Amino acid sequence: MNRSIIDFTPLLRPLFEKRAKATRLWQGRQEEVQKEVLVYLLRKARNTLVGTRNDFSKIAESSSPYEAYRNTVVTTEFEQIRPDVMRMINGEKDILWPGKCRNFAQSSGTSGGKSKYIPITDASLRKNHYQGSFDTVAHYIFSNPESRMFSGKGFILGGSFANELNIDNKNVRVGDLSATLINKIPALGGMFRIPDKHTALLSDWEIKLPELTRKASKSYVTNISGVPSWFLTVLKKICSDNNTDLITDIWPGLEVFFHGGISFDPYREEYKRLTGGKCNFRETYNASEGFFAVQNEPDDTSMLLILDAGVFYEFIPLSGNEPVAAWEVKKGETYEMIITSCNGLWRYHLGDTVRIESVDPLKIRIAGRTKSFINAFGEELMEDNAEHGIAAACKATGAIIRNYTAAPLFADKLHKAHHQWLIEWEKVPENPSLFVEQLDKALAEVNSDYEAKRAHSIFLEMPEIIDAPRGLFDHWLAKAGNHKLGGQRKIPRLSNNRHLMETLLKMAREL
Known about the structure:
This protein has 511 residues and is an alpha/beta fold. The protein is built from 18 helices and 20 strands. The strands form four sheets. Strands 5-3-6-7-8-9-10-15-14-13-11-12 form a twelve-stranded mixed β-sheet, sandwiched between helices. A three-stranded mixed β-sheet has the order 2-1-4. A hairpin with a 6-residue loop joins β11 and β12. The protein is globular and about 65 Å long.
């Protein structure tokens, strides 16, 4: 095992602590900081196609730039900007952001079934993605004075440049966001990470997984970063190859897992077991569209919104009212998030909902996707409700899940309406009936509408659990052209109709 002789953490600590302390200066200045970001973005893009269309120069120099901006520029979804993005991919400059953009993140498809291609500009790499990564480490180092994080390597699990456009142009790269981040990582950052760039960017996972596990097993790893569901597969493979149940037997210096992409709650207990209870966990909000928030306190899993990293935020109340700015949100409310960013997205619908946990400092928690919910019977079940329920049921029964999705089943002659949960198990529950009871109980505890509809089973019966065959969700992802281990692909957790559920049930019968 290649152990680093030198611990660089004390040398780097002052740099990270300085940034962590600087973020505290946002308190009481959120409006000022965010307005500075907006004016910067408008001025920077004033001569682009989108800038001339909307007269960004005039907006930026107005007495109230934000008022002028939201009164002039309409909110957009990807399909509305797809033609402009394709022009950028084809080499045109000054479209949504100054200059040419040579990197694009392929992300999950829209309702039309096509993938999205999010521009990754040099400005978004420098001011946003890498700044967000730096902030993640800064807050961790600041709150962990005994950390020896830079005495070893960071294991970053990423995707590849495989894409649906089949682009073979050395000047244009389309693929997973993580592939671009790894490919463009500064030299200093590369010193402290594994695997090597060649292995990290392999697209064939039959080749990549053995190479990852072999090289990772020989390294001294102190921190890991990635999506919990994907990383669990890799870590268990490493353990299996080394005849142990604990990853800390292989990496005794492992101290933190920086995770994001999906809720960590259903996976927390298994990661605690796998790391022998010796690992810290820190959540991040890092999407294809940008790095938005980071957990800044060890005992508070809500995340601090990064206010000065090239993103201007707006929030649409679930009631459907007009968007409000970051300094206008209310604690406890749930909003859809809209961004204006240095990657050329202007008042762009992310498709994510967040709950405001604190207004000063501004801290959020991801509530789910705007199109991922069940409200077939007035129960308004959101993703964060589902993740809480699954986590509670797993904890009560010793179960571990690999993946799941849920959908409504409407009443017919045989049964009343209820929710079906299709679950692929890593470890089946010791008591399946108790799992259902605990899931139902936990959902009622966090969602009063669900509780009301479940009362006395008048409107909704108990949830139904269907066991999914091993590999079902991976098979669906692959068939949908979305199977990119370590990338940004996600299983829709909740659906308000049965289209996905029926597709998966049919696949399950065929496997």
